Amino acid sequence: MSKRKLNRLVTEKWVDGWDDPRLLTLAGLRRRGVSSTAINSFIRGIGITRSDNSLIRVDRLEYHIREELNKTAPRTMVVLRPLKVVIANLEEGKVLDLDGKMWPDAPAEDASSYYKVPFSRTVYIEKTDFRLKDSKDYYGLAPDKSALLRYAFPIKCTDVIYGDNPDDIVEIRAEYDPSKTSKPKGVLHWVAEPAPGVEPLKVEVRLFEKLFMSENPAELKDWLGDLNPHSKEVIKDAYAVPSLATAVLGDKFQFERLGYFAVDTDSTPEKLVFNRTVTLRDSYGKAGPK
């Protein structure tokens, strides 16, 4: 896209400045959490062409970003849209300090490869990880069904608490299996109250999609009409594990099951802000780089 059109996007406030993470400018990519290493790897991968009209898919850049972050971004857990789960058979006031892996192949003897995850009577899972009607191809939580909490225990849904609206589920009651004898197929990420009655760490998470709906909006007459109305979603009250409280600008993480995220410049000591750099899904990489 030409600089003239980029300038129009910025000056007419279709985006939030030249460093808007949705823009494929160096400033935008940097703010989104893309490193120079990933960009250089992408450039080497596409090579040099004399053609002025060649179109390079963004998927190719995202492939190289994932390749690097998979090796460099420690794992952690964040719940974007929390659903409260009360563990009925866990003693009131009891908090277990469990170990979460920062890396998939973390050696058991290396304490620096783990982070502490509090497990208490009140935990939160994603709203999308619970449904009232179960099915064979669904691995989340459902009434009378079990799922494994990552790094913790299997839990089984025993009751559902509704709000004033019959479709509004405000709380799940469950029982955990301390012996871990049950082996459910589904594995869920989660965040718990770090102490009885203490709300988990709140963070803001910004989810970005492609700025335009078509691959090459520059060739369209009404290119502004091609803007994706869902290119940015801000989730102000996501829950995070306590260890993320020390994150600083420049830090990058894999939020398990959600994608790769980087600390944004809008972060303050009172509220951390994370930008999604890229999702875990990789359609381009399945076939390998070309």
TrEMBL record:
<dbReference type="InterPro" id="IPR050132">
    <property type="entry name" value="Gln/Glu-tRNA_Ligase"/>
</dbReference>
<dbReference type="InterPro" id="IPR020058">
    <property type="entry name" value="Glu/Gln-tRNA-synth_Ib_cat-dom"/>
</dbReference>
<feature type="domain" description="tRNA synthetases class I (E and Q) anti-codon binding">
    <location>
        <begin position="187"/>
        <end position="264"/>
    </location>
</feature>
<dbReference type="Pfam" id="PF20974">
    <property type="entry name" value="tRNA-synt_1c_C2"/>
</dbReference>
<comment type="similarity">
    <text>Belongs to the class-I aminoacyl-tRNA synthetase family.</text>
</comment>
<keyword id="KW-0030">Aminoacyl-tRNA synthetase</keyword>
<protein>
    <recommendedName>
        <fullName>glutamine--tRNA ligase</fullName>
        <ecNumber>6.1.1.18</ecNumber>
    </recommendedName>
</protein>
<keyword id="KW-0067">ATP-binding</keyword>
<feature type="domain" description="Glutamyl/glutaminyl-tRNA synthetase class Ib anti-codon binding">
    <location>
        <begin position="73"/>
        <end position="177"/>
    </location>
</feature>
<dbReference type="InterPro" id="IPR011035">
    <property type="entry name" value="Ribosomal_bL25/Gln-tRNA_synth"/>
</dbReference>
<keyword id="KW-0547">Nucleotide-binding</keyword>
<dbReference type="Pfam" id="PF03950">
    <property type="entry name" value="tRNA-synt_1c_C"/>
</dbReference>
<keyword id="KW-0648">Protein biosynthesis</keyword>
<dbReference type="InterPro" id="IPR020059">
    <property type="entry name" value="Glu/Gln-tRNA-synth_Ib_codon-bd"/>
</dbReference>
<dbReference type="Pfam" id="PF00749">
    <property type="entry name" value="tRNA-synt_1c"/>
</dbReference>
<feature type="domain" description="Glutamyl/glutaminyl-tRNA synthetase class Ib catalytic">
    <location>
        <begin position="1"/>
        <end position="70"/>
    </location>
</feature>
<dbReference type="InterPro" id="IPR020056">
    <property type="entry name" value="Rbsml_bL25/Gln-tRNA_synth_N"/>
</dbReference>
<keyword id="KW-0436">Ligase</keyword>
<dbReference type="GO" id="GO:0004819">
    <property type="term" value="F:glutamine-tRNA ligase activity"/>
</dbReference>
<dbReference type="GO" id="GO:0005829">
    <property type="term" value="C:cytosol"/>
</dbReference>
<dbReference type="InterPro" id="IPR049437">
    <property type="entry name" value="tRNA-synt_1c_C2"/>
</dbReference>
<dbReference type="GO" id="GO:0005524">
    <property type="term" value="F:ATP binding"/>
</dbReference>
<dbReference type="GO" id="GO:0006425">
    <property type="term" value="P:glutaminyl-tRNA aminoacylation"/>
</dbReference>
<dbReference type="InterPro" id="IPR020061">
    <property type="entry name" value="Glu_tRNA_lig_a-bdl"/>
</dbReference>
